[in-house]
Records
---
Amino acid sequence: MMNRLDRIAFVGLLAQALFGCATAQPPQELLDARSAYDAASKGPAAQLAPAQLDTAKQSLAKAEQSFADNGDKPMTKDAAYVAERRAELAAAEGAREKADRARAQMDKDFKNSEIDAVAATKDRAAKAQADLEKERQARSEAEKNLADANKKLGAAMASLAEIAKVKEESRGVVITLSGSVLFATGKSDLLPIAQQKLTDVAKALNDQGYQSLLVEGHTDAQGSADKNMVLSQQRADSVRMYLVSQGIPSDKIRSQGLGSSRPVADNNTAEGRANNRRVEIVVTPLGK
Amino acid sequence: MREFCLVGIALLLTACGGAAVPQEPLTAAKAAVAGAEVGGAASDPKAALHLKLAKEYVAKAESLIADGDNEEAARIIDRAQADADLALALAKETAAEKEAQDTKESLDRLRKQAQ
């Protein structure tokens, strides 16, 4: 079955054959109209603008008919001109419809994505809120712990200060116990009153917390340096052992005899010598 | 015989002066030109070209009508109508494509944000 266009083309050819007009060239307008229709019918218009494409087809058929009937006359050119515009219009309508459909689909996607994005943002916000809350709690707990530790430290320091001299040096907190309170002259056994003092010191240290302890024995400059060195080591050992017996872990406390090598006062006066005879407990605080 | 002649002359006159003024198609073409302008054809280069042609053909058709050449005027009006219709269709196509492009861009932006 021939469609209308084919039929018209056939009639045109027949007319040309009959009237011997085979040499008549179609006008440029008709050639343009044919290729415009060809392009439109291969584009989206075929699916999306069938009515306009059909109008274009009929316009082209009219132009072909005019060419067949009248040849290359102004009326043929006019009809072809109109046919070309109708084909271009169909193509434009097809393209517009295609763009409209694409946009409609994207609008749908946009709404869905928007919903997703809102949900994602909500999730993120909720998570950030939870993280913030967790962090706030951790911080307030840390602050509380620090405050507790400071309070404890303050209390421990206060009780230590009652029984010994406490000062802060770059090497840590130094607790100085007078030698005359701890030992009899030339001895390294702890006096009973010394034991009581050291019990308090041990208790304060355990309350306070620390990283490590160093017990240093010091003497005045009287007597031989060797003997003083031995005596200071023995005294430091005595204090260390007693503190261990009061619950200080043995791996956290060391002892060292320094003899008269580090005087803190003048060895030429009795008072100075008394100050030099001492045991120092160096406390390395936690976190150092 | 005389009557026959009159009829013949009348037929001759009708055949020659034949076509009436194509007032309705002219009005329709003018309306299509106005519609294309309202549809934004002037601001789209491709559409603007056809809008311009349509206007020129309307003017030409009017001058042909004034000269009494109604038959050619009718064909020129067909051209004007075709160009005006095409101008509007092209303007609408451009607008639809721009809108689709804008939508695509905002969709892309949104998707980037969601990641």
---
Amino acid sequence: MQEFKKKYKKILEQYLLKQTEHNLYEGQNISRELIQKNISPEEVISIHKASLEEILSDIDGDVQHSFDLLIEVMVRYGLALKEHQTLIQKQQNLKMEMELAANVQQTLLKTKVPKEIDLDIGIITVPAKEMNGDYAHFLHDNTHVGIAVADVIGKGIPAALCMSMIKYGMDSLDGAETDPVIVLDVINRIVEKSVSDSMFISMFYGKYDTSKSEFTYASAGHEPPLFYCSESSSFSELQAKGLLLGVIPNVKYEQHSITLNKGDFVVMMTDGVTECRSKEGFIEQKTIMDIIENVRDQSAQEMVEYVFHKLEELQDFEQRDDFTLVIFKKV
Amino acid sequence: MNISVELHQKEPLIINGIIKGEIDAFTAPILREKLAEIDIKENLQVIIDLTDVSYMDSTGLGVFVGFYKSINASNSHMELIGLSSRLKRLFDITGLGEIMDIQASSGEVKIDETV
């Protein structure tokens, strides 16, 4: 403190002698040091008053009293500054915890992309913030490949915790051969029981029979996937009625099947894809289909990455929602 | 990202609500709070007009589902009217259109989404 008093007095003396920019700038420099050392505003004024008294040996009594009043007024400013600094520290701590949680989430929700001789699967999932509210999971055994794409309605940490419910449900299933309607039913019951009243999940589940090239699917309020038929070079929607997960316990889900021929592919996504908005308004489904069709001859992974980057561009690089896109191609 | 929520109770068992603007992650809490102020009693009818809602995402849906659950639990009724085709599609895809009472905006043609 003594060191600062000396320094401050010197700067004040210099400035009183000559009011140059340089001498003023010294004042700026010392304030940085004072803040770093947590010297409060009222202490600075006290130092100023003491220095002034030493430099000008006769200061008007009124001026001295005025400083005392100013010191009193600044006390509250000092408290506000301390509070501000505490909040900044808290925020930094929270940020670190969030990053940790996001890492844990990534590890827990890791999924392996199945490798099958006549299947090409591409996946991209990008959270809008640290925690991802979208979930994509693969199941794989000798005869079937299962794929789940889900979107937790709600954001942040509660949404991510909700996802562990889905993972728990998926882990308790009998494997990739399970019928989609059963998968959805199991998870619906778990979510309805355990999740808060304002958290819901939309989910699409499909199972692919590798020997028959048959894709069987069901949906719980999820955005219908696109199916591309290479023979007719056209898209259609894979619609299946079913209520969102977690609303009521007994839900009937529709189940349908299609056969995949060479070159056909299924595009599964979350509303981070379909609700893309540019300055002009919503990006139409037709635009998304055109973008996908442009790259249909590339690998599934190349396709999903291309679509993501293209849509990123169209949105002016402002990602509003978690973005998940899976392309499941028969080659 | 603006929203306005007006609730009028002209009769003891009927509440008319008008929502204008966007219902998304930022504005949904405001809507939720306003709906929570409603004293839900048996046989209450709540009619909410969404004609001037320009955008709603899944967070908005969450608010309505939460409110719907409370309504159901007390034997009262909720109706959503004036939905644009985009909003109606959202309710239809999620299956909420089947369990909730919703009406499209009058004069709008229902578009078949299959391409």
---
Amino acid sequence: MWEAAISAAQHLFSPGPLIAFAIITPIALFNGVMIAGGVPVFILLLSFASQLDPFIALPAAVFYAAANDATEPIPSILIGVPGSRGSQATIIDGYPMSRQGRAGEALGAVYVSSLIGGIIGAAMLMGVLPVAREVLKLFGAAEFFLLSLLGIATVALLSSGAMVKGLLTAAFGLAIALIGFSPIGGVVRANMGIGYLWDGLPLVPMLLGLFAIPELANLVVSNTTIATERLDEVLSGSGEGVKKGMKEATRHKWLITRSSLIGAFVGMMPGLGAVPAHWIAYAQARQTEPGAMESFGTGDIRGVIAPEASNNAIDGGVLVPTLFFSIPGSPNMALILAMLILVGIQPGPPMLNQHLDLSIALVWTIVLANIIVVPIVLRFAPLIARVTVIPPNILFPLVMAIIVIGVYQSSQSVGDLWLFAAAGVLGLFMKAYAWPRPPIVIAIVLANEAEKWLWIATNTYGWEMFLRWQFNAILAFVVLGAFVGIRAQRNASRIKAAEAAEHQIGEAAP
Amino acid sequence: MTTSNANGATASRSRFTSIEFIGEVILLIAVAAFFVYMYLDSVPPDADALGWLPWRLEWDNGGWLLPRIAVLFGTPFWFWRAYLLFKAGASSTTGQIMDTGFLETDDDPMMVLRRWVQLIGTTGALLIGLWVFGFHIAVPAYTILYLIIFGKVKWYWTLIPAVFFEIIIIGIYGYILLSEWGTPVARDWPVIGSIWDAAINVWHNFYEANLES
């Protein structure tokens, strides 16, 4: 373990990853505050992944996700518009603070709590490594098949408010993921006679079409920009409060610790993501902090500390189910899972054996991202916030041009462009009718693994695979986890609805 | 028919002809069509009338198993969703955590429609441009034209992103990552093709003389 930790640090502090971090930091910081969110650029990173060393590609992706999270509170606090769904709870107290001329204080408190939260999340991940290693030793092909299938189904099941659509999408995703040559049966399946589909659906055009086109459409059609005058007004004098906010945050270390543990634990629950953790952390702070029942919602600094500490602690938690059990903890983790496959690494046991150093490198990356990004954000928050005033009609062609270049790199065929367009149309329909898209991504990523393990399991155990105690233990654990997850989501939705009604919060950007 | 019944029938009719309802029906039909195709494709082409049965399969050695699991798993949920759609109408876009529908906008519906046409038209034009003229021409041209027409940017500012993308295409992808950009359709056209070849020869001569070392 220690050898792997040292090897991870050696890899991480070599020129390749450090140059990647330097390139990615400004991109991630500016993307985090955009209405379309960081997802299109995240997917774009995938188009480079197969050409990079895993020790550059994966830490860069994790660094991007962590840095992206760091800028999310900026629009929430400064202009009352959530940069993502994960920063909604921060608005309740952050925006009133900004209106009271305390934007700097709120940002200072947010970044100290984010920093500590991120480090606690990473420590939790590190602590889970030896346990996960022992658990995975008990599993065979049947259990790995089950985990792959559950990875697809769990995310669908937890698509709150859309369970039927989520499960239908998961099945559809699994079916389209099986198009093309089957290494198991040695036949070409359902390629509709199109030669391009012989190798199956390439991941990058599918992902960029499904996610980037609908998000960019959202940007252009809603034409959402924030007035420059309002931003100037808010930012005037924000610098002085930062130190005060940082000092204030250190006074609430137990609140930060509690909220971080909530974030890390919720992050480990498959498919839940940042939103429930944010609201649960906010609700526990409101119920447990003295006088919070009255002061929360009026610009109480503890109301921004709690959700933001949990938000950054999640980054460590969500890597546990993603890396070790192939069950992504959030939509971003589905993309990390896709990146693992693209760089040729299988999630699960290999991440704890052959690639243990890579797993630990990702832990270091989370810590490093928080340490590097937080001071930058504190220094440049006003500049970063100005991205929100760039008109969509200027951003759109620039992002679209980068995306089509990335799409074509997938297999360097014109077919990539047509698949991108088709996936874009599908993505637009799915987004318009609120069909969850992450199950399709996870299905495409995990289908080959699932099929390989199914073939080995049926040939090794036959029907007896269903009688193995490990198989049934996983099933029971995941069913229980999904039940707890659904309850947590319902509670989070209830808290969110109550707070939204009380404080008139708008719907977030996806 | 009473007035309330008549109103109810009208509301129901308008619900079934609404864009929300029709759009989701199209999505369901697309999913069903793929499920049926996936299932039937695993049947041998010369199968008899009972060829659709699960044990009559073309894809051997277990290649049929997971596709059929996916289709059989999805089918009940397809019927369930179709039932909910016809019973309760199109999806609500609220209350979801992992996907959220589009942002609401207060703008005039005609303005929103105009933006959709702009989005679909320009993206379609970009993709066709890439196919016909290739990346080296279509990407900078798209950037310049979009920024001038819709972004209201002065033409000389648009040259900055256009040159930036050209550098990425030629420099990073072409010479560092050694990407192949394929042959655009227009290069086979009589006049354009010869101009194209001449331009490429000029570039290669310049590269070999000045940059290769």
---
Amino acid sequence: MEETFEITLFTLGVAALGTFLAFPFAIGLAWLLARRNWWGKSLIETLVALPLVIPPVATGLLLLLLLGRRSPVGSFVENTLGLEIIFTWRAVVLAAAIMSFPLLVRSARVAFEGVSPRLEQVARTLGASPGKVFATITLPLAARGLVAATLLAFARALGEFGATVMIAGYIPGKTATLSLSIYHLVQLGRDGEALGLLFWSIALAFGAVWLGEWFLKRRAS
Amino acid sequence: MNFHRIRPLFFGLWAVFATVLSGAELNVFAAASLSDALKVMSKDYEAKTGDKLLLNLAASNVLARQIKEGAPADLFFSADLAKMDDLEKAGLIAPDSRTTLLSNSLVIVVNREGGPAITAPADLAKASVGRIALAEPQTVPAGIYAKEYLQKAGLWKQVIDKVVPTESVRSCLLAVELGNVDAGIVYKTDALISKKVKVAYEIPAAEGPKISYPVAVVRESKSPEAARRFAAYLKTPEALALFSKYGFQAAPKPEAAPAAVPKR
Amino acid sequence: MNLRLQDIHLPLSEFTLKVDVLLKGRVTALFGASGSGKTTLLEIVAGLRRPASGRVQLSNSVLTDAGARLSVPVHRRDIGYVPQEGALFPHLSVRQNLLYGFTSKPERPAALSFAHVVEVLEIGTLADRRVATLSGGEKQRVAFGRALLAAPRLLLLDEPLAGLDLPLKERLLPYLGRIRDEFAIPMLYVTHAANEVMALCDEVLALDKGQVWFQGNPQEFFEPSQTVSYVVRAKS
């Protein structure tokens, strides 16, 4: 299929953008969950885990109802910001970001919990502000785990289908990711042509996960 | 175990036995556009005959594929001839069981609450119309019909960039209902059941594609007599009246021009 | 030092920490069995924990006042802290560890220059090594150096020689003495080793189940009669 290259590139791009957008929120939340306690914390933990366990199409439906043109959020975005979401590449990125978010939070939290709080405390007694402690102690020590978490989330975003099909649909040239295209070809009865897409789908996911595992196992330099 | 718990259990068992002993269960694979009419019909049919209809409603291409892959269907009720021909060629239809009963017409629908004004098909090409939902024009009958019409009307090239393909004609309708597209092309029967869309333009039978809904008994059916019974029922005036209530028309006769059932 | 711990009160899992003392020693020993609240008290002084009620005042600065909901942030207290495990930053070199809290303050005593601290603790040759390659004793000396180079007003040490074998303890004790003598930084020194108390400290504060049962000088503390009668001494 001639478009295999474009579709693969598009998929990489939206997955990367989605992961990039989710990253700051996920890292921030992961740090809070690792280091702080507050009333309602378990509620937040459960809410964050939901996209992992609710069927992706259900999450997609929720997003459709929330972000459709006639909904409060959707109409605000469209009328005030002039941006269309549903049935555009933005919806693909959004689906990627939301579906990979819980995975990113979970893994990043584990990475932060692996940093001894004692080290952070000592750093503070040495005059480091909380920001400096995070930048010079917490982040570097959690870095390997965070990279692995990001790669895992990226792999998830690459393969996202259920929510994407709901809010972006399959529009050739506009929202066609690897998974949507494979599904479409199978629907047409042209599964043979989907093999090229299948190969890339597996190769990309394999690469991302393998790299992530490698990062986790690497000795600290 | 107290008696009050056992009672519902007994009733449940009794009901299951009653069903198994009394009537057959038919797996009816039917096009999505037939959803509402068939749901009502199946209740009446079961009350009348004791045979239960299990409806599998989806785009006809999806159903055809499922049957090809061995899904347990007893009847196939398709929204276009091509899917039925496909199965017939593959030898999956019981010979002599195929008839074409119904027809439909296409309409352009818009959301009731506003959006760009559309009064004629050419309006679809206007810049103010951003996105148009169609059932997937390569595979779903409703989309194939819509594309056929747009090509005939010389509009296809102008609207192709606006097309949002959907999985079935019902999801096409939903897209218009939710307001995420500016217009859609669906069957008239779909427009009639939706409260959130209005018909902007009805494609006249003479200009539109010939829409046919063939029905046939699947060869590998486990209840062929019951399947034939239902297929026969579909031809009765009672059944046809129900379909016409939902806006379906009688099938176009091959030799003559399509004759519409008098509308109520 | 001039460390006032006024009506400090903090319920812990097994007992309540209750301390009300004024510490004046150059090196004050905080003596007690494991779990008697010593580490918690250090954490309160460092600002890492807040008492339920009470005040912490070092010379003229009020660091914690639970009643007034005042707690100076940890990084502004200028109180050094060497935990039991030393806690060197594993991803930084020795030099980077040492310089972590080093700022060129105008009021920094000349004695606390990088060169001098490194010389006194004899860690100069370690400067470019990675933390993981150091021996236990070397790590502790680097930990002391790191805390000193931040020019603290008060140094808190939580059993710095625990977990080291006897020969090593004997080798490191003099370094602590040098810190006391060369740098004149007051220290609050948690231990349950009598020889360390005798060698380093001029004041002892003894805790048992969160309560102070002795405050005074080491000689009086180690009188045989003291270990028998648990008498709460009058504040000095």
